[in-house]
Every structure is written in C-alpha cells, then in structure tokens.
Amino acid sequence: MITYGFLILLTPLLAFVIQIFIGKRLPRKGDWVSISAVVFTLCLSIAMLGMMLFLHDSGFKIDKSWEWFNLGHMQVHLGILIDNITIVMLVVVALVSSLVHIYSVGYMKGDPRYSRYFAYLSLFTFSMNGIVLSNNLFSIYMFWELVGLSSYLLIGFWFEKDTASDAAKKAFLVNRIGDMGMFIGIMLFFTATGSFVFSDVFSGVASGQISGTLLTVAGLCLFAGAVGKSAQFPLHVWLPDAMEGPTPVSALIHAATMVAAGVYLMVRLFPLFTPEALTIIAYVGGFTAIFAAIIAVTQNDIKKVLAYSTVSQLGYMILAVGSGAYIAGFFHLVTHAAFKAGLFLCSGSVIHAMHHAYHKLKDHETDPQDMRNMGGLKDKMKITYWTMVICTVAISGVPLMSGFLSKDAILAGTLSFALCNPVHFLLPLFGFGAALLTAFYMFRLIFMTFHGEPARQEVHNHVHESPLVMTAPLMTLATLSLFLFYTLPYFNPFSDHGWFTRLVVAVESSVPGSLSALEIAEGVDHAHTSAIILSLIVAGIGIFLAFAMYLKKRISAERMAVRLAIPYKLSFNKFFMDEIYSKYLVSPSLTLAKKIGYFDWDLYDKYFINGFGKVTRLISRIVGIKWDYDILDQLFVDGVGHGTRFFGRKLRLIQSGKLQSYLIWVLCGIIVIFVIQTM
Amino acid sequence: MDQLNTYLIIGAILFSLGLFGIITRRNAIAVLMGVELILNASNINFIAFSRFGGMNLSGHVFSLFVIIMAAAETAVALAIVINLYNNLGSVNVDDAASLKQ
Fold first, then answer.
1. Residues β-bridged to residue A77
2. Shortest CA gap A637–chain B (Å)
3. Residue B1 pLDDT grade (very low, low, confident, very high; cuts 50, 70, 90)
4. Contact A656/B at CB under 8 A
5. DSSP bridge partners of A79
6. Peptide bond into A489 cis (omega under 30)
7. CB spacing of A658 vs B97 below 8 angstroms
8. How far, in Å, CA of A595 to CA of A77, rounded?
9. In whole angstroms, what is the distance from residue A439 CA to residue A297 CA?
10. Please, which residues bridge with residue A67 across strands?
11. N-term to C-term CA, chain B
C-alpha cells in the first residue's frame, strides 16, 4: 500500500518534469505523457479501492513516518497516511483528473502552450495527491501551497488577457490570507504538542496539552486555510474570477478537487475542533451556502453560475463539518466532485461550440459564455444536453441521484444539530434555503441554455456537438452521478446505506467533552425522514419555479426583477463584495502603500540616503584636499623625493675624482674602525 | 721579543712614510714610490715574523713573492703612467679626475 502511495504521488511529478523540459519536442507535444501518468495513478487508486472493499474494514489505517530533519529536541517527520478516506479521495482526484486530461485534448487543441498546459495539470495532480496522502500538518502545508501555485498558473494560463492574469493574482493573494491563518494554526499546534504528525497532535489534544480558548483559536486558524482554499465567505471572491482559466481547469481545480481540499482538511482534522469552533465553522459554511446561492440566481455567465454554485456547495460541506456530520460533508465532496466536474465540462462543451460558431461568423465581440446568447441548443448538442441534465438533477437533490443522498445526509445532520441546540435554528434554514435556490438556478441554467428559441438563428446553425474525446468524460461523470455507485450492495435510492457509509466512518473527537460520533449518528438517523421530506419539497419548489419562469414564461423574470429591485440588484452585483473590498481594503492599502512609498522615496531616500551621500562627499573633499593632498601627498610622498635630492646634492661633492682624497677617507674609516675596536 | 718589536716599529714607520707619500705627492711616480715603501714595510714584517715569530721559511718565501709582485706591479703602473702622460700631457694625479661628478 505504501508503495502504491508513493507511485501515486510521484508519477505525476515525473510527468511534470518530462513535460516542462522536453514536452514541446515530444510527438503530439507530449500530452500522452501526462495522460498516461494520471491514468496510471487512476489504476493504482482503483486497485486500492478494490483492496479496501475486499478488506471491508472501517478501521483500516496505514500511518508511516520518516524523520526528515532533527534539530535537537525538535524533530520533523514526513509521512504517508492511508485510510479509507484517503483512498476514496485518491480515487476522486485521479478519476476527475484523468477525465479532465482526456477532455483537454479536445478542448485545448491548437493552443500555443499545449504542452505546458499538460505540465501544469500534472503538477496539480501531484500536489493534490500530496495533500491527500500527507500524515502531518507540515507536508500538507507544503502541498497546500503547491496546489495554490498550480491553480495560479492555470487560472492565468491565458495571461495575454488582462482579466486572466488579474484573476490569477487575485486568487493567489486571497488564498494567501487564509494560508497565513493556517500557518499560525499549524504553529500553535506544533508549539503545544511538539509534533506535526496528525496522530501525535490528536493525542496531544486528547491529553490536554492544548485546550480551552487556545484550542478554539488554533482550530479556527486552521479553518482559515480552508476558508481561503474552499472559497468560503468572506474569502470566496477569488473563485468566480478564477473562471478566467480554461474550462477543464475550472472543472478539475475549481469545482472538484482543489477547492475540496479545504473540506478534506476539515474532515482530516475534525477531532481537533472544539464545539465553539465548530459552531463558528457551521455558521460560516451555512451563510456561504445561502449567500452564494442567492448570487447564482441572477448571473448570466454560464460559468459564473456554476462558480457560485460551487461556492454554495462547498458551504454545504463546511456546514456539515460544523454540525458534526462531517462524514456527510465528505460524502457530498465525493458526489459533488463527480456532478460538478460534469457540469463544468458540459459548460465547456457548450462554450466550445458557441465559440466555434462565433468564430465561423467572424464575430469576436459577443461573449460565448453569456447564457442570454444561447438557447435552443438541445437538439444540436444531444449528448451534452442529456449529461448536463443528469448532473443538474443530481445537484438539485432529486432522488435516484447521488446528490440527493449526500445533500440529504447534510441536511439531516444540520437538522439534528438544530434540534439539539434550538438556538442555532438558522443553520437548517440556510441549508434548506440553499437547496431551494440550487434547484432553481440550476434549472434556470438548463432552460436558458438548451431550451426556448435560439438567440440568433445563424449562430445556432453553426453550433455542433463536441468530439468524442470531450463527450466521453461527460458521459462517464453523468453515469457516476447515479445513486447506485454509492449505495452498493443496496438498491434503496432513499437511503445512503452502502459501502461508503459502512467503510468511511467518523472518528471520535480528541477534544474532551465533545459529542461522541455515536450520538451524532443517532441524531442524524432521527432527523433523516423529516430531512428527506423537507428537501424533496424545497427541490420541487425550486424546479417548479424555474420551469414556470424560464420555460413556460408564466412568471416574467423581468417583472420579478423590477418588483424585487433591491434584492435583485444586490444579487446581480454579488452583494457588491468586490466593490466593498476594493473600497475598504484594496484602496486603503494602496493609499497606505503610497504613503509608505512617499516616506520611503521622498523622505527616506531623498533626505536620508542622499544626505548620507552628500555628507560623505563633503568629508571626502575635506579629507582629500587637506589631509590627502596637502599633508600626505605634498609633505610625505614628495618629502621623500625632496630629501633624496637634497642629500644627493650634498653627497655628490665627496666624489671629487681626486685619488688621494679617497684614500684619506679610507684612512679615516680605518682609524674609526680601530677606535671602535679598542673601545 | 724586544728585537721583534723593533723590527715591527721600523716596518710601521716605513708603512707610514709610504702612506704619507701616497697621500701627499701629486706626482704619479712619487705615488708609486710610496707604494713600494708600503710593500717593503710588509717585507720587513714577514722577515721579522720569520725570524722571531715561528713563521720560519714561509716568511722568506712570502717576501720573495712580494718582491716579484712589486716588480710586476711597478711595470704595469709605469705603463699606466706613460699612458696617462700620453693622454693628459702630465703625470699629476690630480689631473686624472675625469670620473669626478
């Protein structure tokens, strides 16, 4: 198993190295290198999944650490942790990644940086597998930053567009804020327990090495990392902008895997969170779910709708973690990965078709992503239409679909949490409200894109279905949205009992005094039936409203917008979050930067640094003239010459040329020697 | 012992006379004569040490060498003096000062 883990981790890295250095010179620009690497990891992951199903042991766990470095009493270990959650997550990552790789062959065809695109995808797969396989906070943080990097590179892949490079920067900076919190959290746990390894940290918390408010704060700091990566309110602003990247990237990174890393982290570290921290986490998640759903209702860009839908669904997962039903959150992560990746790839297929149609008509002005320019694509793109409908039904929480099971589990968890603590009645309201809106805006998307009259007939004539390399992943993902794959060996579409719930089970919280996993499970069971009924009702209302407003046009959407002007404007402008940030955060910091820049350049540089230079020049001038030239040069250096000349002139007179005078000097010398000797 | 001292004093007087001649005379021939005096002073010393100082026959042999060398030296010196006269028209040593500064 450990060998499998290493192979899964390192094969994409090898593919990345090959691609980035010699990708361009390989046949087909090397896309097969990345694809075969990721398919290889998929095979290994599925083999691991098979082993897990065969073993059928909910407590299965391999945890192996190696010492990385040792600084006296501080030892840092790196290691691999493989348990059922890891294996399921590995399969999700490898599967979505493989399908996206294959889809990209069609989508990115002819791109000038084709090989680099695949290199980045491999880098991302490597880093994501790293997060999943880590058994310690230290390496999880390293891989956390690496997925951030690959996300940055892929959002800004078409960096010639200003919007794309701006979006990449925004994503990176916003994530930075969350990561800072996460770093502090990791350090708090390390200081308290002296280890980065999960199991040591858990036992440290259980034995009370860190407790009370500090533990709550440390947990919330870790949660800040998840808020950034999983685009929770208030750091959600980067995700909709990240849609500037290629659509397959949006499907892989910004829908299925990377944004789910935050949820995965929460699931992994659930035993560390105190009840107070979990309450805050639940509110953040619940608020994000309803908030993003409200925005998604009025967006016209097909990818923006899906982006806000992703934010909303991630909010759901966080809400589940906060309510204690974190296995339900993880379940939703898995099912959501399949249908949301499917939705994104479908939207990519639509955009691809629209783009080609506009290209044929030499129209480069119209936005191929705007749903108002679509309509009636149903007959032209049959496979895309049907796969997208299946995924939409799944995300809306209709029975027979995977989304129904996971969403229902979350709603049941929330409901039971609120039943235990009636103070938190808002949480299930958030959940059910978001469920209603999800059904509404997803069907609105379907009706606006595929039904009704085409916006422009000549564009419609040029639209055609995408090639098989793109539709095959769509069909795979749509198939995986059926309930069957998650409930085997049972066939009850209303109950999530199956291999998943049996093998992936909650672990007890390490925090003393929190609810036990059993109590939570009992509560969820209790609330199960009412949750099913309620969620079916809200999903039905949402679908019916969308049907009435956008297909039958019984209720005019425009008139609704006028009547509900204020909520409509708020929603359409994304609650002015970007404007608020730019007014209250970005421009003040720019002003501050300008002030500091003024201090730095105009005061410090001009007066201090330049003054230093001026004083130095003055001193050197004085020293140069008075000391160096007048004293050293004139007196000493020239003095030696003058002295030599002077004595030379005097001593020259001895050389008279008279033989006898020389002899007298010799005689004098001898006499002197004699005198000295006799003394 | 007194006899050795007597000879050494005679040698010293002769040496001093020769030195005085070399220093004071301006004529090159006279200077040469001073040199001869100094050489003979050394001869007296050799003979005296040979007789009283245990130098034995070596002293005699050295004296004979000195006499031979003096003859050779006089021949060379006289040749120089003749050349001096040919070039300068005088044998005054003070005139031969063309190397002076």
1. A67
2. 28
3. low
4. yes
5. A65
6. yes
7. yes
8. 44
9. 10
10. A77
11. 51
